[in-house]
Amino acid sequence: MKRILVVDDDVVMIRLYEVQLRRSGYSAYYFQNSEEALGRAKGIDPDLAILDYNMPGLNGADLSHALRDLLGKPQMPTIFVTGEMEEGILARIGQIENARLLAKPFSPRRVITLVEEFFAEDNKVANSTESQP
Asked: Which CATH class name applies to 3-130?
């Protein structure tokens, strides 16, 4: 089962992710701050991260880099969630490989669509790697 790390300082957003991810059969771990997420990430070994961009402490981009370094997963799929579409934020997220942006407000189903797209891409890569001589 795929494991998803979710970090958002908004309890309402955490609840939204929890309902959608559980309904879709994913194993997800929820944190309201970057420090706790970093402290527990190794034990979880997530396959994907959903990160709020604007949080106290580390922003989503900095947290993504820290998680990828900590876990040794420089290509870990990451979904950044933000309500602020400032040019600087968009540029920063655009520089991060294997990342997508989810702009608030969004349909709860859109979260699952993005997660499924990432995992479908991972399966294609894994299958093509296995079939090569």
From this structure: alpha beta
